[in-house]
Amino acid sequence: MLNRFLFIVLLISLVTVGCEYSSQPETIIDSLPQQDAMLSASLAKAAAGGRVFIVFDDKADPDLVESLGGRVVYSYQIVPAVAATAPGDVISQLAVHPRVVRIEPDGKVHAIDAELDNTWGVKRIGAGIVHDGGNKGSGVKIGIIDSGTDYTHPDLDGNFDPNNLGRDFVNDDDYPMDDNGHGTHVAGTIAAEDDGVGVVGVAPEASLYALKVLNSSGSGNWSDIIAALDWAVANGIQVTNNSYGSSNDPGSTVEAAFENSAAAGILHVAAAGNAGNPPGRGDNVGYPAVYGSVIAVAATNQDDNRASFSSTGSEVELSAPGVKINSTKLGGGYVEFNGTSMASPHVAGTAALVIAAGISNVRAQLQTTADDLGVTGRDPLYGYGLVDADEAAGSPPPPSNDPPTVSITSPADGSTFDSGATINFAGTANDTEDGDLTANLVWTSSIDGQIGTGGSFSTTTLSDGDHTISAEVTDSGGEKASASIGITVGAPAVNNNDIYVWAIDFSEKHYGRGGSKTDLMTIVTIHRDSDGDGVAEDADEPTSQARVEMKLSKSTDESWNFAGDTGSDGSVTFTLKSAPNGTYTATVTNVTHGTYVYNFSLNVETSDTHIIQ
User: Fold this and answer.
1) CA–CA distance from 224 to each of 83, 129, 229, 257 (Å)?
2) Are residues 420 and 362 in the same domain?
3) Annotated catalytic, 476?
4) Which domain holds residue 429?
5) For residue 607, how many C-alpha atoms fall within 13 Å in the half-sphere facing its CB?
6) Which of 57, 88, 106 is the last residue of a domain?
7) Residue 527 is a catalytic residue
8) Is residue 400 situated within a structural domain?
9) Between 20 and 30 A from 10 (CA), which of 22, 23, 121, 564?
């Protein structure tokens, strides 16, 4: 039986070369606990033969996968998962393993390309002015997650370290040579050398690393992309450019990989997608650009108007030139392409200039210095506007009005006081911009309203009962902060919201020839402390709609996890079909309810044992 509710979405999405996405239909496998066998068979059939993500509860365990007969392609560091291939029966075994959280089929991505059409984009965003000031992005590490790069191109060879060119995840080697052309064109926009020949990139002295995840046809797997992010974190990459995508959500494992690598210090920049329409209607930003950890970049033309193919939506963060962009060509020379794939590297290169300028909050700097286009403010066509390298790398962002902080130092949360007692309230508040604001604390009670101001206050005016006491502070910029505690004056209020485990019972059902087969039923009953006396007793009310989670363990180290809701009699029954003889221990691991609170200290039983002979 599965140890949890599984929701497996087979995402094999293709983004077409050009201005729109196409995708294969989704296969959704969904099951309730009683459909475990059917689910395992469906999952095995869906996933067998292709790569899958096997996500663990804590740390990736490639040895487990291989011990069962699977082949691990990648074991990741930034997410607790492996990418693997396995026969259907192995997938079924892993699906019910207690350490496996979920299994997600790997999916496909394609380059967000590029239509064949002298460098106007780099000039338009003001990168040349930054170069004239001596900033060319020297030393900033940029990972180009794409089809590889022609690192022998005379306009790019100086940007690569011959001892560490990057990594080819398609062919599993350290020579990520481009065999499609897409990655080479992207690389030139980011960092083509300023040598007086051909084109010049936005950050011509940046250090480039080619992370090849797309094959010669511009297609690749999400599993290779997560591996590239792993590599980027391990090798100190500061910016990644992601000019590829998918129209369908690839699952939580991919999203977590981008979030975790961003938390490790990498700024991710991605093409918003070429799925837009001339009127600019709809939300059609692709993955990974749609993620909050990624800057989604739309495309503009020479008139600063949105390119008709450029995807739109609330996730669009910045815009950049993406029409008739002349850049480096695979094998030498130069070529013009259109696409948000060409816009994204303008932003990635600008980010390198901002980093080289010593500005720490790069993403905020890019937003606040962008040239507003379209309607005033951020909009779904242009985001914050056209990236402006000159302004972004020229000066640090203006200081923000940091909000204050406040804490209550006494009394402690949950304190009880006699009626009429003097209660001393104390708290502290600070603001990094405006200094100590303790004198501005305002104290309020949930029952009696405002009870005083100042850093400390004594009162005997609170009525009997439970109170929420709050302290609030306002800084000179009008921003507020608050903190709260709960206290009780006089006799505490009756608490009849606690629920607990009243009983764990077992029964058996025998069937088959001569009663040779046995179903083991475990019945868990939940009560509510309805009289609020803090004592578990038979008079307490049974509680319906309580979610009970239970683990059933056998003396042979086998175990099964169950979850279900109690009925009107307060009980829920979990059935282990065809249970072999042996000793079983049922343990309630958690109880939740939308209204009541699980108080395990009231439990009459937490676990019980039963023997089938």
Assistant:
1) 9, 37, 9, 12
2) no
3) no
4) 405-489
5) 9
6) 106
7) no
8) no
9) 564
